[in-house]
Amino acid sequence: MDLCFQISSIPCSTHRLSLRSCVFTSRNSSQFGGRSVCLALNSDTLVAGNSAEIVSKKEDEIADLKSWMHQNGLPPCKVVLKDRPCRVIPRPIHYVAASQDLQAGDVAFSVPSGLVVTLERVLGNETVAELLTTNKLSELACLALYLMYEKKQGKKSFWYPYIRELDRQRGRGQLAVESPLLWSDVELNYLTGSPTKAEVLERAEGIRREYNELDTVWFMAGSLFQQYPYDIPTEAFPFDIFKQAFVAVQSCVVHLQRVSLARRFALVPLGPPLLSYGSRCKAMLTAVDDAVQLVVDRPYKAGDPIFVWCGPQPNSKLLINYGFVDDDNPYDRIMIEAALNTEDPQYQDKRLVAQKNGKLSVQVFQVNVGKEREAVLDLLPYLRLGYVSDPSEMQSVISSQGPICPVSPCMERAVLDQLASYFRARLAGYPTTLDEDESMLTDPSLDPKKRVATQLVRLEKKVLGTCLEVIVDMITQLPDVTVSPCPAPYAPILK
Question: Which of 322, 352, 376 is the last residue of a domain?
Answer without folding.
Answer: 322
